[in-house]
Amino acid sequence: MALKKGSIISFGEQRVLVVAPHPDDEVLGCGGLMSRIRQNGGEVHVLVMTVGDTRQYGGTSVATVRLRELKEAMKYLRIDDFNVALKGASHLKLDTLPQRTLIDEVETGKVSIASVDPTIVCIPYLHSTNQDHVAVSTAAFTACRPVGSTVKRTPQIVLSYEQPELLWSRRRFQPNFYIDISDHLDRKIRSLGIYRTQMRNSKHPRSLDNVKRMAELRGMEVGTDAAEAYECHRFLT
Prior knowledge:
Blueprint: E1 2-3, E2 15-20, H1 25-39, E3 43-51, E4 54-56, E5 59-61, H2 63-76, E6 81-87, H3 99-108, H4 113-116, E7 120-123, H5 131-143, E8 157-161, E9 177-180, H6 185-194, H7 208-222, E10 227-235
């Protein structure tokens, strides 16, 4: 399914909740969608699960720096609200926390299904090679379960987003839902550039050049200049 201009979805009427394990995951996976929703007058809210100080390939993650980059990127994309749920030692160790802790943040935290009442929820890929992504994806998938209750609403659209690192995964990402971001690719790339400490050189999957190439490849698959690809778990109209 491809969502283009004039599609059956009115982007200006959507409330989107993007659930991201770490700062920058939200833009890597959904930067074009977020830009398109906001440009059309819809709402975008971002839940970042954790950030902390840690050594990583290509450098060091410093929480204060990444939080500053997150705030700048959210301001650039004009995001309605965002929150980092768990700061500190949980970074790259979310798989060691009780799933209930993560589910509660997605369901009822400061920025959550309860506070946003989203029509669209975007979550990490269920089969990522990153343990934090798997933990957050599993929790978010559970939080989006249909319960048939007026107390807890069921999001109409639930999507797993793609990221460059998924080129190496236990199960290859198989998109069945595309969003045309031809008019928003530049804003996605610029917002990613704000995460200066996280972007890598041109040979790395997480480089600005490769993110752009991926968007162009996904666009080619559906006949547009650029697209974001998703796995759709629910599409209720």
